[in-house]
Amino acid sequence: MTSTLDSLFLLAQGGGGNPLAGQFVPIILMVAMFYLLLIRPQQKARKELQARIDSLEKGDKVITTGGMHGTVHQISEKTVTLKAGGDNVFLTFDKPSVASVIKLKSEKAASSKDTKTDKK
Predict the structure, then answer these.
(1) 57-120 architecture in CATH?
(2) Domain-wise residue ranges, the chain
(3) Are the C-beta atoms of residues 105 and 56 closer than 8 Å to each other?
(4) For residues 80 and 93, is the Cβ–Cβ distance under 8 A?
(5) Do residues 97 and 56 make contact, with C-beta atoms less than 8 angstroms apart?
(6) 12-33 exposure pattern, b = at least 16 Cβ within 10 A, e = fewer
(7) How far is Cα 26 from Cα 32, in angstroms, rounded to an integer?
(8) What are residue 83's DSSP bridge partners?
(9) Nearest-10 Cα torsion for 50, 55, 57, 62
(10) 101 contact partners, CB below 8 Å, separation of at least 6
(11) Which of 106, 107, 100, 109 is nearest to 82 (CA)?
(12) Distance between CA 15 and CA 36 in Å, rounded?
């Protein structure tokens, strides 16, 4: 009878559980926070950039990872040729080296909005 009371007393105090389980909870919370705050937003941004690269068109303005600004002149399966600077200066880059894309259509839409507001 005493052993039953002792075991109930130990369970009530929490002494019967696994002591390692309490140590894993903070680690699991930290991994979840890293995923939600760092990994997931980075994956989302990379997918958006990849979608923009896949939809490149002639005339779009781009910036490469090396900082080169140019206008898309020609697109192939793995490379993009940019017109940069002066007369007939063409540079060929791999598509993954494109860091940001400014779509030609969005620039035209923005300029047409500016001209509409100027007329008023």
Answers:
(1) Roll (2.30)
(2) 1-54, 57-120
(3) no
(4) yes
(5) no
(6) eeeeeeeeeeeeeeeeeeeeee
(7) 10
(8) 71, 90
(9) -20
(10) 49, 52, 53, 56, 60, 61, 62
(11) 100
(12) 34
CB 102 within 8 A of CB 61: yes
39 by DSSP, 3-state: which?
helix
Closest CA to 31 of 20, 40, 44: 40
Q: Where are the alpha helices (DSSP H) in the chain?
A: 2-13, 21-34, 40-54, 104-119
The one-letter amino acid at 79:
T
Tens digits of per-residue pLDDT, 51-101?
988 999 999 999 999 999 999 999 999 999 999 887 889 999 999 999 999
Give, for 81, the enclosing helix (H) or strand (E).
strand 79-83
Backbone φ, ψ for residue 67 (5° rounding): 95, 5
Confidence bin at 108 (pLDDT 50/70/90): low
Give Dmax (Cα) for the chain: 98
Give the C-alpha separation, 50 to 100, whole Å.
10
